[in-house]
Amino acid sequence: MPVSGAWDQLHTVGPAAALFAGAGVVLTADLIDRRAPVRVLTLLALAAGALYTLWHALTGSASGPGLEAFEGAVVLDRFALYFAFLLIAVTAAVTVVAAEFTSRIEQSGEFHSLLLISAGAMVLLAQANDLIILFVALETTSIAQFVLAGIGRDDRSSEAGLKYLLTGAVSAAVLLYGFALLWGISGATSFDGIAAFVGQGDEGTQLALIFAFVLVTAGLGFKLAIAPFQAWAPDVYQGAPTPVTTFLSVASKAAGFAIVLRVFYAGFGGAGTFISDDWAALFAVLAGVSMTFGNIAAMLQTDVKRLLAYSSIAQAGNIAVGVAAVAAGSTLGPSGVLFFLAAYAATNLGAFIVVIAVSERIGSDQLGDYAGLLKRSPLLSVILVLCLLSLTGIPPTAGFLAKLYVFNAAIQTGETRLVWLVGVAVLNTAIAAFYYLRWARLVVLDEPSDASPVRATISARVLLAVAAAVVLLFGLVPAPLISAAQRAAEVLQSS
């Protein structure tokens, strides 16, 4: 339903606006007084965004097809609210665990304001219904992340920021070419206009449309860190400050798949169009290549941040199985992707919080230095092992059900190529078990070289407890999250 009036228009982007306003407040407070409580102000801004999102959910503003603002360029629906909750929660967790890092740098105000800007732009991305809004929001969050990757000011962090910037610039150019081609073919920048054109089924434009969505996929593939567009991820994950790596691994990937679902479902018309088979095949290939490359490369890593980088590439392949199922007409595909993203967010957050806590205490990210961690910190060890089991896909964790969900969505289509893809995914799960369980074995069975205890901060322990509870809760009682994912996905399926 379209809305009019300046306040009503702003009302639809309230959660993102709250984060942008919070970024301004944080930066201004830091300029006035370097001792300003910027972390508290950041958490207050995130709380405001969360409350605004909750208010939208409770008042039914996003019910049905939702609200449209700015001439339909932005939509407020349950799909957008789902990602708003997820992204704000992840950003709040990163803000808390980054406390020790930000206390050591002079750019604490800049760090927190950039975090809010990036999160606000990602929330807006999930609401985008137009190519122009999507591109502006995507570049806003990307530029903030380029700076965050290099904010450590040491050689490795600066290198990470520069590599991220250069590859990001190339991917933005490729994406913009794809958008320009889509506009040239369809004469529209809105997803509804593009979908209407695709729905006409003009065979004369099929080749041009396929070329356009290949360019769009390549541009978005960078954001997803999906093979073969993943080259930046290992070096950036390793060189960036670990809290920034956590943010990139979880929030950025969630926002990337939100864009993919919105663009390919709302823009290319979902399943049943004359090009749906083409993009189903494309994502099936990307899924298989990403899973295989990511898992094989992860087996060779001795640095935990690089290992998690390649793990992230492989997990993107698992999620892409659900995207391929979407294109093939699976009714479970969209909700499977949403469920997987939430489970992955909790799991990867837990793993990275342990990495942050350990690296702050022992000053190393080497896998070998995790030997005997159980004897040095039972809490960190138990939660890390739980998260590794979830990433592997072993019950009763949320990661197991997430994989089962998206694999079932692919099998449900009945397409031979997707059944084979699930076979590849199952084989890759066995490969992933090698390096995930090798890490767990180091933690539990090996003897430590240093017997001194490793303790996390109180706030980190609280977050670890929450992450572990979510991983177990949605592994044992998944119905609430499945229901939320299905309600959010219905918006796409009815568009």
Give a topology summary:
Layout: H1 6-12, H2 14-32, H3 38-59, E1 67-69, E2 74-76, H4 78-97, H5 99-104, H6 108-127, H7 131-149, H8 155-186, H9 191-199, H10 206-224, H11 232-239, H12 242-267, H13 276-299, H14 304-327, H15 333-362, H16 373-376, H17 378-392, H18 398-412, H19 416-445, H20 458-476, H21 479-493
Antiparallel strand pairs: 1-2
Helix pairs in contact: 2-3, 2-6, 3-4, 3-6, 4-6, 4-12, 4-15, 4-21, 6-7, 6-12, 7-8, 7-12, 8-10, 8-11, 9-12, 10-12, 11-12, 11-14, 12-14, 12-15, 13-14, 13-19, 14-15, 14-18, 14-19, 15-17, 15-18, 15-20, 15-21, 17-19, 17-20, 18-20
What would you say this structure looks like, in words?
The protein is mainly alpha-helical and 495 residues long. The chain has one domain. Helix content is 77%, strand content 1%. The protein has 21 helices and 2 strands. A two-stranded antiparallel sheet has the order 1-2. Strand 1 and strand 2 form a beta hairpin. The longest helix is centred in the middle third of the chain and has 32 residues. The protein is globular and about 70 Å long. The protein starts with 5 loop residues before the first helix and ends with a helix.
